[in-house]
Amino acid sequence: MIGRLLSLMLLTLGVWGGAAIAMEVLEFQTPEDQERYRVLTEELRCPKCQNQNLEDSNAGIAVDLRSQIYAMVNDGKSNQEIIDYMVARYGEFVLYRPVHDSSTAVLWYGPFVLLLVGGLIFILVVFKNKRQSDKDAKL
């Protein structure tokens, strides 16, 4: 009993200790730079992880990209310059919000078109069934 409890306590300390070691401590020149860093790491996607932003990912490439963003923020680069660099290097996949252009029109507007078409089909079927039931009622 005591052995199990001791093992559980050591396991818990090991997990928490490992998490504490993995945390990054970054010093920024201004609070605005720190906020820019946070926003950028939340809005850019990890190239390795399918649906995690750089802030939440622990993949090696995410750690490297966070340090690159940190250096670029401290060098005074604008958010757009940092985003442009990441897109040029990793493609538009790194953007959680793809740009609005002709190549992404289906992504942005396709669900609304499908919803509209589905609604029209639903209305047509309901009216057709109502008309048929009215005909059947008259006979």
UniProtKB/TrEMBL annotation:
Record protein name field: Cytochrome c-type biogenesis protein
GO cellular component: plasma membrane
Family named by the database record: Belongs to the CcmH/CycL/Ccl2/NrfF family.
Presence of the UniProt keyword Heme in the record: yes
Gene Ontology molecular function terms on file: metal ion binding
GO term, biological process aspect, one: cytochrome complex assembly
Job of this protein: Possible subunit of a heme lyase.
InterPro entries assigned to the protein according to its UniProt record, in alphabetical order: C-type_cytochrome_biogenesis, CcmH/CycL/Ccl2/NrfF_N, CcmH/CycL/NrfF/Ccl2_sf
